[in-house]
Amino acid sequence: MATLGRLLRAALEVCLRLGDALGMRGARWEWKKQTWRQALEAWVAGWENLERGVRARTRMCRECRTLVQRRERVCPSCGASMSGIPSGGIGRLLALIAPAFGSATTVLISVNVGMSLLILILWGTSGGAAGPLGFLCPPFHAI
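Now predict its structure.
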């Protein structure tokens, strides 16, 4: 992530220098440059924070605020359950990538919609169906 941040900062600086070379000057231009730099820094910092959360080897107990290893189910200090406290690793990465897939129902509905769209894209419509929803009728060979 650090490499991507450096690359984005360098690209922004190149664009800003190009603007300066083209004669963009003045207080408004300087304000815009500063705003863009701050927005980029905030964006990069947010992604670096997410990366640290995914790489975390510990999580914090809700009750006593002790750092507990990621694999522990119960806090060794106070005995509180660690269920429901996010930990790092692949599970957290998947939750960040697809936060809407929290339940089996959501996954099944998404798969059904995706398959319907795939059939529609690959084989198109049958053409013989009439009405406003005729585009949802796949051709015979798609069934």
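Strands lie at 58-60, 67-69.
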